[in-house]
Amino acid sequence: MTDSHLDLSADRPPAPTVAFTIRPIGLVHAASRKPARIPKYFIPKGRATLELFHPYLAGLQGLYGGVELWIVTYHAPSGRVPIDFCPGGDGVPGVFATTSVERPNPIEFLRARVVAINTEKGLLDVEGLELEDGAPILDIRPANSPHHRLSKPGE
Questions:
Q1: What's the CA gap between 114 and 63, in Å, rounded?
Q2: Which of 52, 88, 92, 143 shows its CA 20 to 30 Å from the CA of 155?
Q3: What number of CA atoms fall less than 13 Å from residue 4's CA on the CB side?
Q4: Among 18, 132, 141, which residue's Cα sits nearest to residue 74?
Q5: Contact 124/68 with Cβ under 8 angstroms?
Q6: Does domain 21-30+44-77+101-145 have CATH number 2.60.120.330?
Q7: Cα–Cα distance, 107 to 23 (Å, whole number)
Q8: Cβ neighbours around 57 below 10 Å, total
Q9: What DSSP character marks residue 12?
Q10: Are 141 and 30 in contact (CB under 8 A)?
């Protein structure tokens, strides 16, 4: 065994059990559609309305039509949370190298573009989002350039 391929699994302590609470900030309202197998390279074209709960309406200030956002949701299409689901090996990519919806923690980070916004009612109409109707929204963030955090300060 080479130094670059050391087997450290015997030396590792068991994974810690951590419990915490995440409260949804809203819900996704999407048109019903027939479930289909998602291809490896998939460009979502769906439209949905994101409904934010009352305490979070002020968080929409500053958003506008055309802006791209990261929508963070909880996604467990099978109705179960997979435990330690990380297939891979023997030429098969591991779960972290795929866009599989079956993940150790069913959290989705999806990019969408704002089509319309109603800040008074807490509604965002977005495009480019393929999600189940009723999926809980955990967070919304601007989809800035991926390079904005990769450079050293001062560069």
A1: 8
A2: 143
A3: 0
A4: 132
A5: no
A6: no
A7: 13
A8: 17
A9: P
A10: no
End-to-end distance of the chain based on CA atoms, in angstroms? 40
Other beta carbons within 10 Å of 138 = 17
Could you tell me if 33 and 67 are in contact, meaning their C-beta atoms sit under 8 angstroms apart?
Answer: no
Q: What is the pTM of this model?
A: 0.70
Q: Scanning the structure block, which residue is given the tokens 């990769």?
A: 150
Per-residue pLDDT of the chain (155 residues), as tens digits, is 444 555 555 677 777 788 888 899 999 998 765 555 554 444 456 889 999 999 999 999 999 999 999 999 987 655 554 555 566 667 777 777 777 667 777 888 889 999 999 999 999 999 988 778 899 999 999 997 555 444 445 55
Q: Nearest Cα to 103, choosing from 94, 113, 95, 111?
A: 95
Contact 137, 50 (CB under 8 A): yes
Cα 113 to Cα 47: distance, rounded to the nearest angstrom: 9
Tally Cβ neighbours within 10 Å of residue 28: 21
Long-range contacts: 17-22, Cβ < 8 Å, 24+? Answer: 22/74, 22/138
